[in-house]
Design a protein that fits this description.
The protein is mainly alpha-helical. About 70% of the residues lie in helices and about 0% in strands.
């Protein structure tokens, strides 16, 4: 761990910064517009940036410092059925029974992994000399 630095913060800042530069270069290369974009598109971009990037990926990167990588990777599996449940709720659509069965299987698997990993899948602290 870097002393005096929040490694998850440093990593995400560098990662998101480089991705932004690559996106800018690609937009310029393919002559994609930066202006005259409908407000609905901007709201979608802002929503995805806040929800998926900042809350999603940044939180997972932070959790890797405190939890077992196995538990964190299993938690990522909750994204698909969780998104289906949210879409069903917000779009008022009936979800197939398989969605609920899949969510139950993922939760059962996650529970088994956490129980096998020990208390909450937390990493054991290491002594630094």
């Amino acid at each position: 761990m870097l002393r005096g630095y929040d490694t998850a913060g440093v990593y995400t800042s560098l990662c998101y910064g480089f991705c932004s530069i690559i996106l800018l270069v690609l937009c310029l290369s393919f002559r994609q517009p930066f202006v005259n974009i409908p407000p609905e598109a901007w709201w979608g971009i802002i929503g995805v940036t806040i929800a998926a990037q900042i809350f999603g990926h940044t939180i997972f990167n932070h959790l890797l410092a405190t939890m077992s990588p196995l538990v964190v990777s299993m938690m990522i599996l909750l994204e698909i059925p969780g998104a289906a449940l949210l879409a069903g709720f917000f779009l008022h659509q009936a979800l197939p029974a398989g969605t609920y069965a899949g969510l139950a299987l993922i939760l059962a698997g996650l529970a088994i992994v956490i129980l096998y990993q020990g208390r909450s899948g937390l990493k054991k602290s290491r002594r630094i000399k």
